[in-house]
Amino acid sequence: IHQTRARPTRHPAGWGRRGGLGPLTVLVAALLTPALLGLPIGPGPRAAPNPFEQSKIEAQAAEGFPHILSLWREEVYFELYDFGTQASQSRISREAFAQRMVELSWVPSGRPDPTHVKAAFRFRTLVYITARIPYRNKFNPDSRFSKDETFLLQWEAGSWRVDLIHLIRAPYV
Fold first, then answer.
1. How confident is the model over 14-70, as pLDDT tens digits?
2. pTM for the full model?
3. 25 contacts 33 by C-beta, under 8 angstroms
4. What are the DSSP calls for the chain, one per residue?
5. How far, in Å, CA of 91 to CA of 110, rounded?
6. How many CB atoms are located within 10 Å of the residue 49 CB?
7. 66-119: per-residue pLDDT in tens?
8. How far is residue 28's CA from residue 25's CA, in Å, rounded to a whole number?
9. Angle 42-48-52 (CA atoms, 0-180°, nearest 5)?
10. Which of 7, 87, 111, 128 has a CA that sits 20 to 30 A from residue 66's CA?
11. Buried b vs exposed e over 134-148: b needs ≥16 C-beta within 10 Å?
12. How far is Cα 8 from Cα 30, in angstroms, rounded to an integer?
């Protein structure tokens, strides 16, 4: 009796005996696909900030806010436009922003009370600033009031920036 051995069949490289991809090929493909598509591999290099970093970011935003408020108070609208976020600058031109701000009846009349200024961390580049803003009427200086306002400051191009549309709508928001 003559016994024949089954001859091993040759499969294309990476293919298993049953016609599917081998586990090694699947692993290599899973690791290389994101890199080939330009996607980051694994969790990004940025971790969530610890409480000390959060308070530092809040303090930096709170330091940048008075400058924005002083430009608004002094009615220097072309310079104030430069402290607008890129998204809000794309929505309104410099001239239109200045014209709309000139037409407003109310402007901040002084510095907000530091006890009423609070910063709330949202992300590394987003901080909410809540402040009690004293307003005065441009046309009737005796008409004054204060209102608690919340502004979203965004870190862009090396400085804290504010939504220009929010400034146009203040104090009516």
1. 555 555 667 777 777 777 776 667 666 555 556 787 888 888 888 888 888 889 899
2. 0.66
3. no
4. ----PPPPPP--TTB-TTSSB-HHHHHHHHHHHHHHHTPPPSS-SPPPPPHHHHHHHHHHHHHHHHHHHHHHHTT-HHHHHTTB-HHHHHHS-HHHHHHHHHH-SEEE-SPPPGGG-EEEEEETTEEEEEEEEEEEESS-TT-EEEEEEEEEEEEETTEEEE-HHHHHHTT--
5. 29
6. 14
7. 898 999 989 899 999 999 999 999 999 999 999 999 998 898 888 877 778 888
8. 5
9. 150
10. 87
11. bbbeeeeeeeeebee
12. 29
Record the tokens describing residue 102, joined without a space. Answer: 């000139």
Residue with tokens 């998204």: 87
